[in-house]
């Protein structure tokens, strides 16, 4: 499943994932954003892995925020934007 | 950490002969690491491309961004760089690319946006000398009233920051659109459906040869910040050749995000 979201004033966030037994699996977030250190993107993927597929946008956002250390810098990408791409992947809402 | 000014550093210029796309990726990593360690002085490196390439950002999905069959058909090498940002379509005579490898003190205390603005400021001056009224446009573009000119990307390695910029000198939009996949979602807040129309290259804006523009840019940097002519060290070259072969040509790295 594939979802995309262009963050207004930011960058494109893409989510590719599968849903097995109503849970998110094989989650991979990609896009033309900037994140330092670059390993923090793996942390975001891991935070989403295994969450119920009916997790709300707000709860997905909180799960990502909680997983990121204070020293991680995001530029052109936000937890809410990632959550939007993930919801679109699950809901099949990307045009 | 206190912020340092450009003129407090002894800037070095590297403008070597044409190199392969994977070698350019490797040189960025090696030279940034060398500046971070203090073994190399802060450096401006102007790239010459030996062959066409698509350069994708650190976090982009290879499959989503590139039509690999079309790239192969056109003899275009696909490489992944160490910085984030978007895909670039490179043909040797059509692009002006450079890297700045600087101590992190140059951008100490700045936000990412301020740091892009600072690193792009000399080239805005250089473009003004060429008669182009360019400006930095967040997050990472250089634009002019006639259209986008360039895109920048930064990444940090320990005590150094890498800021590299690709400027469009000329562009074969038809070929670019065959090779890059540019989705509708990406263009949703850009106000145009044509990626090709977003770029207005330096050739049409200046009427000058590519080499002349590069020469003027180097002159502007030299006047503003000082610049010594330098070359790649034997050890730097050997390290970069090793990385180009083992990392930047490998499917594991290029398809790190498949």
- Describe the main β-sheet of chain A briefly: 3 strands, antiparallel
Task: Tell me the name of the CATH homologous superfamily of chain B.
Answer: Bira Bifunctional Protein, Domain 2
- The amount of helix of chain B comes to 25-40%
Classified by CATH, the class of chain A is Alpha Beta
Known CATH architecture of chain B: 2-Layer Sandwich
For the record, the CATH architecture of chain A stands as 2-Layer Sandwich
By DSSP (H or I, 4+ residues per run), the number of helices of chain B equals: 9
Report mean pLDDT of chain B, rounded to a whole number.
93
How many H/I helical runs of chain A?
3
Average pLDDT reading of chain A = 96
The neighbouring-strand order within the major sheet of chain B is 7-8-9-10-6-2-1-11
Radius of gyration computed on alpha carbons of chain B: 17 Å
Q: What share of residues are in beta strands of chain B? A: 15-25%
CATH class of chain B: Alpha Beta
H and E string of chain A: EEEEHHEH
Distance from N terminus to C terminus of chain A (CA atoms, Å) equals 13 Å
Could you explain how this protein is built, in words?
The complex is a heterodimer of chains A (95) and B (258). Chain A is 35% helix and 31% strand. With 95 residues, chain A is of the alpha+beta class. Chain A has one domain: Enolase-like, domain 1 (2-Layer Sandwich), CATH 3.30.390.50. Chain A has a three-stranded antiparallel sheet with strand order 1-2-3. Chain A has a two-stranded antiparallel sheet with strand order 4-5. In chain A, a hairpin with a 2-residue loop joins strand 2 and strand 3 (23-31). In chain A, helix 1 crosses helix 2 and helix 2 (57-67) packs across helix 3. The radius of gyration of chain A is 12 Å and the shape is globular. The two termini of chain A are 13 Å apart. The mean pLDDT of chain A is 96. The N and C termini of chain B lie far apart (38 Å). Chain B has an eight-stranded mixed sheet with strand order 7-8-9-10-6-2-1-11. Residues 190-197 of chain B have low confidence and may be disordered. Chain B is globular and about 50 Å long. Chain B is 35% helix and 22% strand. In chain B, strand 9 and strand 10 (160-168) form a beta hairpin. Chain B has 258 residues and is α/β, with parallel strands linked by helices. The interface between A and B is medium-sized, with 27 and 30 residues.
